[in-house]
Amino acid sequence: QVQLVESGGGLVQAGGSLRLSCAASGINFSFSVMAWYRQAPGKLRELVATITPGGRTSYTVSVTGRFTISRDNGQKTVYLQMNGLKPEDTAVYYCNSRYPSGIQSWGQGTQVTVSS
Predict the structure, then answer these.
(1) Tens of pLDDT along 34-63?
(2) Please, what is the Cα angle at 71 between 66 and 110, to 5 degrees?
């Protein structure tokens, strides 16, 4: 059974930092592209950051230079370090895994709220 369990969300003031974690089980983590998405109220879910099995990363423009995605294949965990948070970063953040075949799995999401 696939499980992606996010943690680390919360309420933070603008300019603050949070570190999200996503613990995976039931997947071949080392072969999976891992990603973080987010969805704000009334908006579509958007891709925030991805990391390949080899550690190559990519980010959406709005978080480049502020967020860092990383992974620990031994612990089957992916992280999202978020610095310089802005109110517009407020959203539910979701962990995603994807095999080369395209099969995907999602976590339940963790709320991040940034106050101005």
Answers:
(1) 999 999 999 999 999 999 999 999 999 999
(2) 65
